Amino acid sequence: MREISYSEAVKEAMTQVMREDNDVFIMGEDIGVYGGAFGVTSGMIDEFGPERVRITPISEAAISGCAVGSAMTGMRPILEIQFSDFVVIAMDNIVNQAAKMRYMFGGKAKVPMVVRLPAGSGAGFAAQHSQSLEAWMTHIPGLKVVQPSNAYDAKGLLKAAIKDDNPVLFYEHKMLYNLKGDVPEESYEIPLGVADIKREGKDITIIATGMMVNHAVEAAQQLEQEGIDVEVIDPRTLVPLDEKAILESVKKTGRVLVVYEAVKRGGFGTEIVSLIAESDAFDYLDAPILRLGGVEAPIPYNPKLEKAAIPQVSDIYQKCLELMNK
Amino acid sequence: MAREVVMPKLGATMEEGIIVSWLVNDGEFIEEGDPIAEIQTDKIVLEVEAESSGHLLKKLYDAGSTVKVHEIIAYMGEENEAIEQTENSSESIDNKLEESNEQGKVRKTPAANKLAKDNGVDLSLISGTGPNSRVQKQDVENYLQQDTSKITPLAQKMVQDLKIDDKDLIGSGQHGKITKKDVLSAVSATTSSQEVESTPLKKVPLKGMRKVIAERMSESYYTAPHVTMTTEINMTECVSLRKQLLPVIEKETGYRLSFNDLIVKAVAHTLSKNKALNISLQNNEIHFYEEVNIGFAVSLDEGLVVPVIGNTDQIGLAEIVKRSKEIVANIKSGKLSPEYFENGTFTISNLGMFAVDSFTPIINQPQSAILGVGRILEKPIVKNGEVVINSMMQLSLSFDHRVIDGAPAAQFMTDLKENLENPFRMLV
Amino acid sequence: MSNELLFQELGLDNQDLKKMLYDMILIRKFEETLKQLYQQGKIHGTMHLCIGQEATAVGACFPLNNEDKITSTHRGHGHSIAKGTDVKKMVAELFGKVTGHCKGKGGSMHIADMTVGNLGANGIVAAGLPLGVGAALTSKMKELGYVVLCFFGDGATNEGAFHESLNLASIWKLPVIFFCENNLYGMSGSITEMTNIESIAVRGSSYGIPSETINGNNILEVIKATQDAVERAKKGEGPTLIEAETYRWEGHSRSDARKYRTREEEKEWKKEKDPIEVFKEILISNNVINENEFIELNEKAQNQMKEAVEYAENSDDPSIDTLMTDIYA
């Protein structure tokens, strides 16, 4: 197996699909020779040229609307938003246009587009460049929301997202870009809506998203010393959500910790908790469901505060001890 | 305005009572004087009666709950009347519900709840190890497993003696451990292992007085190592004394002197000189009593009660006659005042009215000794080398060998025989 | 207009001229120091340096008094210094210290100081324009008399917010100056590829706003254009769009290989059009300063930076419980 980085895996997915399908193109700010703010698209312009690797002005409202328009008329655009925070400038086109078009036209349109969104904190980019706003998107019917936590998933999920006939918000974590992992060279897809058990266990189910999946696995390894056997579930896609996998795991362990980087209040983990509480897995719960999320504050600049603003491995470790009543 | 039904204080020493059973359901109408619930003190089972007619609005405790005296156990009032509760009273009610072993009020996780439900386990019997004593799934699992380590050594021995299947037992001790008490209640209930093949005429649940007796008897039998000594008493002198005293005492008290009264008098007199038997074992402490309070067993349809005559050694025969007759009359007419049953230090069980010569009585806990009295029978005996016909009676003393050795017990029997065969001495 | 004539027309006194030169030098020293500290790993996150653009910041802020306001951008260190923001607290903020302007919570992209009319740097491209329009609306409605100068880059002019703000300010005749620092590149996007017009200034006409393009590396031109705009605004004649052509010597941020432009182009700007050199020449030829004084100004700025860094390094980190403060008023 070949090791490549998360960022290379994202690029490889786009590259492979673009070779197969001429309707697929990518647009965004600085994605040409600059390679995008995080270098994900570096070199793509050399292979596909400026027509298909389309550098745009700093015009999120326009380029997102343009993506919708081109998608409903037969193209399959990939839109890179430089920092996921800037998607709010494109919100009208994503929420009021892309998400609703098929429905309100009675099925007469489809909007096959992917919006790539580098998100998350940890790089010292402060309040306007570090948010995790995926929950906003999960609230909107008509959108799909994907959040890969490693290189292998990133490649397979992005392929599936590009081939999906619906608008897909693809959240990449900027602190994961350099994370290397085993990624096969050949083309493969990971269907949307299929969770992955990142680690099997019998005592606690941690449902984590994005960067937190990796934190959770690390905490689980530490908890082994304590004789606590933690299962880590990575939903991988928030919409559609693999409810079955989550509930089965909960039934197995009876203890649940949901971990997400976004602000705890109203984050998507809240939805996962509700799902469990409303399901027949409720009867298997042997402890209150716990949540770990970001503090209800903007992301601060100071590195210590920045770390304190989101769940760390040690927080997950502590919560698990709490769940085991230790 | 809703009326409160409280746990009655049925005796000076009563601090709490157990609600044995509710006799009416919420919403049901009760006539004044009708029983609402059966209450058990440590002595007896009694009924709480409605002070006035009305509907039972709400029970605050389930059967089996232990409640302090004067605490509200239910509300009565007009049909569908709302119960006016001050903030305090509603709070205290909630607390009571919390304290009572109501299944729905036990803190438990959904998983524990489901497992308990699936296995028909009463969650109130399990002490939770989770936060705030929350019952966790593991607690229920432990409880269900109940391997031998989940049973106290004593209970284990009892189980072996009784040939009970300990799977049938429900542990109420810490972490669902089976204790002596659990074995006793299992024994007093009809155990499945002992079930008779044939169809019974009827099945009556073991409850109320019968349940109390069952529990107390088996507890006594299985905790106190019983030793029974028997001796034969020549009652000829007692027979003639009774003949002489009958009219005297009847004139004074209006009651007839019975042999039982004489025996009570003799036992009290003997016990006052043999205080080593006037003791009880409670909570690993031996209590020695100054007062001699003799109890005597009285049979009722519902079961057996043991009223007590206080300071028996200090009162005359006439007083004994008067008190015992009054107590029995009251008891038989249903007036079970708890005072009748308090502070006994020794019990007499007299079966002399039946064709019983002798038997081995079971000690009435927490007392340490009981005297079984057989019938008086004319028998040929050898006296001074001659065969004569005398009135003979057998006495059996069962005593708790943990606290009473053979010698003091034998001394007591010897003195008692002496006193009964020379009853005039007692009257001096 | 030649520099000579312009110099005379402006009629600035020597103190002001020296102060402006010093501010430009200080901005450069500030950015060079920061770059060093960043490379040493003493500062985390990111920063966008404005070396080469000192004249626009200092020149545009010169006609503003303390009550006048600015809104700034991700490349805002120069604007802050030119508007009189405390440099020690700026460095402290970049160090993430509690003594910083934002108590260590904002960092490079969010430095603000209301006491000197600095409404803050902004990490969202073109976000400062509508905010500036709003601040100008306050001034108008409350008759406070101040003007607002919005700094933004060429890249921002393709955001909807730019166009909408210009239109709004124009119809309401708000006292606002839209000051575009056209440094030719929006990150890696060359202005020639990102717009299809000769100049950004022509966009003003769509909204009925007087506009001009100036040499942003000649501080005299910057002062002149801004002074005129401020005057118009204070007279109630509404907004102005100024396009100041300049160049950033460094990459967009700390992770830019600058593949989108040639090294020749960079050299030309650095050698021929260094705004500090241009201004120094003007001042020397007008006998305002001499070569020695220039060296002294450089040393003074260097010392001020040294003090600021010491102040920052000796300051405390914010305590963890400040994580949850200042979220709501």
From TrEMBL, chain A:
Entry annotated with the keyword Oxidoreductase: yes
UniProt KW S-adenosyl-L-methionine keyword: no
Keywords: Oxidoreductase, Thiamine pyrophosphate
InterPro entries: THDP-binding, Transketo_C/PFOR_II, Transketolase-like_Pyr-bd, Transketolase_C
CDD domains: TPP_PYR_E1-PDHc-beta_like
Domain Transketolase-like pyrimidine-binding stretches: 4-179
Cited SUPFAM superfamilies: Thiamin diphosphate-binding fold (THDP-binding), TK C-terminal domain-like
Cofactor(s) the protein requires to work: thiamine diphosphate
Stated name of the protein: Alpha-ketoacid dehydrogenase subunit beta
Species annotation: Lysinibacillus agricola
From TrEMBL, chain B:
Enzyme Commission identifier(s): 2.3.1.-
Domain Lipoyl-binding stretches: 2-77
Region described as Disordered: 83-108
SUPFAM superfamilies the UniProt entry points to: CoA-dependent acyltransferases (SSF52777), Peripheral subunit-binding domain of 2-oxo acid dehydrogenase complex (SSF47005), Single hybrid motif (SSF51230)
Residue ranges of domain Peripheral subunit-binding (PSBD) in the record: 107-144, 150-187
PROSITE patterns: BIOTINYL_LIPOYL, LIPOYL, PSBD
Cofactor(s) listed: (R)-lipoate
Organism superkingdom: Bacteria
Biased composition (Basic and acidic residues): 93-105
Keywords (A to Z) from UniProt: Acyltransferase, Lipoyl, Transferase
Family: Belongs to the 2-oxoacid dehydrogenase family.
Name of the protein this chain belongs to: Dihydrolipoamide acetyltransferase component of pyruvate dehydrogenase complex
Automatic annotation (TrEMBL), chain C:
SUPFAM superfamilies hit by this protein: Thiamin diphosphate-binding fold (THDP-binding)
Domain Dehydrogenase E1 component, chain residue ranges per copy: 22-319
Stretches that traverse the bilayer: none
Keywords, ordered alphabetically: Oxidoreductase, Thiamine pyrophosphate
Organism: Lysinibacillus agricola
PANTHER family reported in the protein's UniProt record: PYRUVATE DEHYDROGENASE E1 COMPONENT SUBUNIT ALPHA, PYRUVATE DEHYDROGENASE E1 COMPONENT, ALPHA SUBUNIT BACTERIAL AND ORGANELLAR
Superkingdom classification of source: Bacteria
Cofactor or coenzyme needed: thiamine diphosphate
Organism taxonomic ancestry: Bacteria, Bacillati, Bacillota, Bacilli, Bacillales
Entries under InterPro entries matching the protein: DH_E1, PDH_E1_Alpha_Subunit, THDP-binding
UniProt name for this protein: Thiamine pyrophosphate-dependent dehydrogenase E1 component subunit alpha
